[in-house]
Design brief:
By secondary structure, this protein is an alpha/beta fold. It is built from ten helices and nine strands. Helix 2 links the parallel strand 3 and strand 4.
Length: 309
């Protein structure tokens, strides 16, 4: 195999399926493996699904969908940031995962951030930060502990989850959203099947989803692509961050290098690769169940258990 062909192959893998635009897997599992089948949301017994308005814009009303326990007490909270290539709304597809995670001892929430067809970057990040501040502003109503909040997301949502976590404490990434008297910090983060270095991923050719999201190619807006890459904000004090990936999923650019940076700083990180799992694995069993097991253990370690009354 020639060096030129090998290099092209690497770039092709790196750019393929950067972020899924629909809820179907990019690669089918082997014939003998589990079959991919989308799960349907159903609010579990003992929980109430509440909707909160985060911010209202002409193009979209940003909302939070929160699974609140009916019992009395205070719970740690996990915010989910959905995927969809930054351009498709996939809140419903992520609900089954967050319903199951709620049953493990969490208040769980999902945010309907502005898509790239509605507003360009950094609107989506601004909405994620505002959603976290909104959760804290409504902590008593939602029975959550404002000091114990984490985030997770897959595909495009994994990019935004990583970026939200790595920019914790950086005022220039807070955006212009509401609830400015509250913090947008997270104490733990999970990134699923997502590129963390957008500069490297788009070096050869910028994906269409990225052009739509950023309003230009990496060649036209190199500073923006770098600022939007979670890997470039790894520093002392960022939260523990783990990665979950599917064995059948495509290469996620920057994950290895980002883990090396985190480890060098003594920040907890790990990668979990799910056998036979395609993209997006968290929307189908058995991988949704495996994802929830990993997430519950990680968030319990860093966010703790509910305090019951």
């Amino acid at each position: 195999m020639s060096f030129r062909f090998s290099l092209c192959l690497v770039f092709s893998l790196a750019l393929s399926c950067l972020h899924a635009a629909d809820s179907k897997p990019n690669e089918k599992p082997s014939p003998n493996g589990p079959k991919w089948k989308a799960l349907k949301p159903q609010t579990p017994a003992g929980f109430t699904l509440k909707t909160l308005e985060v911010a209202k814009y002409p193009e979209h009303t940003v909302e939070l969908y929160v699974y609140v326990p009916d019992a009395e007490g205070t719970w740690p909270c996990v915010l989910d940031i959905h995927g969809g290539g930054w351009k498709a709304r996939q809140v419903e597809a992520d609900k089954p995962m967050m319903e199951r995670l709620a049953q493990r001892g969490f208040v769980t929430a999902l945010v309907s951030y502005r898509l790239s067809t509605q507003a360009k970057y950094p609107a989506a990040l601004d909405d994620c930060k505002a959603a976290l501040r909104c959760l804290r502003a409504h902590a008593a109503e939602l029975k959550l502990d404002p000091e114990r909040i984490g985030c997770m997301g897959g595909s495009a949502g994994g990019h935004l989850s990583g970026l939200t976590a790595m920019t914790t404490g950086l005022a220039e990434f807070e955006g212009a959203g509401p609830f400015k008297d509250q913090s947008s910090a997270v104490k733990a983060c999970i990134v699923m099947a997502a590129t963390q270095d957008l500069v490297e991923a788009n070096r050869a050719k910028t994906s269409e989803s990225a052009v739509l999201f950023f309003g230009g190619s990496a060649q036209e807006k190199p500073e923006v692509y770098q600022a939007a890459s979670p890997i470039h904000h790894v520093r002392a004090g960022v939260p523990p961050t783990i990665f979950i990936e599917g064995e059948k999923d495509s290469l996620k650019v920057g994950r290895v290098e980002m883990m090396e940076k985190l480890k060098a700083l003594g920040i907890e990180t790990a990668v979990h690769t799910l056998k036979e799992a395609p993209h997006p694995f968290w929307m189908s069993d058995p991988w949704c169940a495996e994802t929830v097991d990993i997430a519950a253990a990680f968030f319990k370690k860093h966010l703790g258990e509910p305090v019951m009354k």
